[in-house]
Structures
1.
Amino acid sequence: MATEIERKFLVISDGWKKGNPPGCFYRQGYLSADLHSVIRVRTSAGRGWITIKKKKGNLARWEYEYEIPLNDAREMMDELCRKPLIEKVRYRIICKDRTWEIDVFSGANQGLVVAEIELDAEDGIFAKPPWLGEEVTHDPRYLNVNLALHPFCRWE
């Protein structure tokens, strides 16, 4: 079992784009979700996955992820997942020897840009790039599962 520890921030400028490779389109939906766990289906780059996450600590979550046939993933998203689905382009960039994932949302979450960093420990230290804005790690509105239920375009 893998443990995921990540922190999430709003992105306040396009400074992260300079010299970075193109992103990858992700489409994902949720089969089940409650306060402590989610079951997600995702497609990207011609592949499909099912992922189960459960809250483990303050920032940590258990994560089980398995590749599934692409057609099964698509069918699950179309027929079983809550709508709207999450659509985003993910960019993986290296900044100050750390990998950041920048998600540029489209569809019902158009206009939202979020950066995530995975850490080895909940108290992990990292340098904050200048394009990083407010931390939203503890704001549940920014969880992808909640963006599927309450899309960014409906926020006031």
Note: The mean pLDDT is 93.
2.
Amino acid sequence: MLRTPLIAALLATTALGARAEMATYVFDPLHTFVTFEIGHFGTSTNRGRFDKKQGSVQFDRAARTGKLEVTIDTGSINTGAEPFNKHLQSKDFFNAAEFPTAKFVADKFAFNGDKVAEVAGQLTLLGKTLPVVLKASNFNCYDNPMLKREVCGGDFETTIARSQWGMGWGLNYGFPDNVRLLVQVEAIKQ
């Protein structure tokens, strides 16, 4: 008779120990990049990146849940051409003086098997917040041999219509409204 309650207690303890746990991961700035692509008169593609960004993820793979927050310094935009950077920082585009940051906050993670397939959240840009879904084209977690910690990350992308956030400069000249955003992220477990 004593075995049954003892076994039940051990099973309950084991089940509690196996419960999913939310872990916090902080973005690794050496392996995290936020870039964009936009067509230029149907001839070539303009590309740029944001050099300053930070973020963290609270992630539970077993429960398939998470929370993500990314903050981007809009004044850190870098296209490789300083005059173009200055124009993108101006009121015509990012208005970095008045809106120094853009932010993406998400709490809806979709999985394909044990891999994150997409992350849905809200993008705040130029003071306006709208829904955005980042689709994963790659996702993995691994034990980093140099850091001696788990690292999770992947390649994510979406296409947004910039005019939805009030960024309409150049549309009347034929510049496209759609901008492809690419986010490469690796985050280190804390």
Note: The domain at 20-189 is CATH 2.40.128.110 (Lipocalin).
3.
Amino acid sequence: MNSAPDDGLTIVHAAAAYVVVCKPAGMLSVPGKGPHNQDCVASRVREMFPTSKGPLIVHRLDMDTSGLLVLGLTSDAQRLLSGQFEKRQVDKAYVAVVAGRLGAERGEIDLPIRPDIERRPLQIVDHEHGRPSSTRWRLVALDAECSRVELEPVTGRTHQLRVHMAEIGHPILGDVLYGPQPQTGEASPRLLLHASYLRFREPLESGTLGDWMEFRSPPAF
């Protein structure tokens, strides 16, 4: 379950109204604060598609997470795609390698999450003030000291998968925010979390929705 380095942003599928890319670990989805954090998926897609009218971003991945993202190349496409995400009509799945051996083949985590006001950008479980958050998981493979799992976020809270897996005692390997600090030489070179599956209805140039589109991306670890 060793990781391999990611090379750069990859175009998975390009259509007239939208594009699906595979984001490498370490790249922002949108510009961050300061001039040194302007390189991101959104800016690169604008360079690749200079005639696109945007806005582009529909959803995001954490900087340390790799995998599939869909971006609208027109305002209509961005609206149609965003509506599907908001109504939970999009199917998403991730692959992760987590610490420890899971004792079941599948399960669901229902733990409410909210921002940790004093330690942003961290999120914490809060049963009183947290927003409802649900993650389904399925065991894919076991190693001596870790498990490969498929994760399906039913809700889409910030850092949800990372918080949920850490909360049940199986943090994602390479997670410097929610995992235990490893000894020197034991750290994963990256967060072992990859957005591997995406399914949505295609936004058309006409401003209407077309057929279901399905994309898969194997992780580099």
Note: The longest strand covers residues 193-203.
